[in-house]
């Protein structure tokens, strides 16, 4: 794709990201998806200049124009992430049915990451929708991909289920269900690289905060954010190269 096409796709990604961030903030709170955007603190309706992806957050310095309440950095982060995801996934999977389904699946991961970041919740309806689109992708990809996906789903679910049995306070039930869906998407050969990378990213986030005293060992970590990031990266990466990197990190 020419560079100008990538720029256009990135702009589209920013707009999609703004919508996905809105879904992530509304669905767990039970707010209708179709209503006007408003500040969750003072309920003031937001104007056009307050809804420009990323730019509005920068110009408003992360504060509501009406009440001064802090705006979560989740919103611009999700928008920027989607601006990268759209061209990257279309480069990786093309513009056909496979590309469209993979992009829709990636959008689900963005919503899950945002929901867990903002509320500490991984909504069942998003996980169910993600499972349906993933199964459709596997069916279109052939029987080998389908059975590999089922095996990956079982492996991912079982692995985190074992963790929750050993340490019930370590992760939530939503994380276990999400690991199953990650495995379904990744397949048997890529589920553990995806989970492994997710844990590496989670550790890279948590350990400096623990060292600085900004987090305590028993504080809840939004694992869904890192499961989403790890899955998206592995989906785009070449598996042999990624496996070598993870092995190097493991010593």
TrEMBL record:
Cellular compartments annotated: Cell membrane
Keywords assigned by UniProt, alphabetized: Cell membrane, Membrane, Transmembrane, Transmembrane helix
Single GO MF annotation: aspartic-type endopeptidase activity
Domain of life (superkingdom): Bacteria
GO biological process, one term: signal peptide processing
Domain Prepilin peptidase A24 N-terminal: 11-90
Protein name listed in UniProt: Prepilin peptidase
InterPro entries the record matches: Prepilin_IV_endopep_pep, Prepilin_pept_A24_N, Prepilin_peptidase/N-MTase
Cross-referenced PANTHER family: PREPILIN LEADER PEPTIDASE_N-METHYLTRANSFERASE-RELATED, TYPE 4 PREPILIN-LIKE PROTEINS LEADER PEPTIDE-PROCESSING ENZYME
Ranges for domain Prepilin type IV endopeptidase peptidase: 104-207
Protein family per UniProt: Belongs to the peptidase A24 family.
Membrane topology: Multi-pass membrane protein
Regions crossing the membrane: 7-24, 44-62, 100-119, 145-166, 191-213, 220-239
A GO cellular-component term linked to this record: plasma membrane
Pfam families in UniProt: A24_N_bact, Peptidase_A24
Entry coiled-coil feature ranges: none
Cell membrane found in the keyword field: yes
């Amino acid at each position: 794709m020419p560079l100008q096409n990538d720029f256009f796709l990135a702009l589209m990604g920013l707009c999609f990201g703004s919508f996905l961030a809105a879904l992530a903030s509304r669905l767990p709170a039970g707010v209708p998806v179709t209503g006007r955007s408003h500040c969750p603190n003072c309920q003031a309706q937001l104007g056009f200049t307050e809804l420009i992806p990323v730019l509005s957050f920068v110009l408003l310095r992360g504060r509501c124009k009406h009440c001064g309440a802090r705006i979560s950095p989740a919103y611009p982060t999700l928008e920027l992430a989607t601006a990268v995801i759209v061209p990257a996934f279309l480069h990786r999977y093309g513009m056909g049915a496979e590309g469209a389904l993979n992009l829709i699946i990636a959008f689900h991961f963005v919503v899950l990451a945002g929901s867990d970041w903002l509320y500490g919740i991984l909504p069942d309806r998003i996980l169910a929708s993600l499972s349906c689109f993933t199964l459709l992708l596997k069916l279109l990809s052939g029987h080998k991909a389908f059975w590999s996906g089922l095996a990956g789903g079982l492996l991912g679910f079982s692995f985190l289920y074992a963790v929750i049995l050993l340490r019930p306070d370590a992760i939530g039930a939503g994380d276990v269900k999400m690991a199953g869906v990650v495995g379904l998407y990744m397949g048997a050969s890529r589920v553990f690289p995806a989970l492994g990378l997710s844990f590496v990213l989670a550790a890279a986030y948590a350990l400096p905060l623990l060292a600085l005293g900004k987090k305590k060992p028993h504080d809840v970590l939004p694992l869904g954010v890192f499961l989403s990031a790890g899955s998206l990266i592995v989906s785009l990466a070449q598996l042999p190269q990624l496996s070598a990197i993870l092995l190097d990190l493991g010593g």
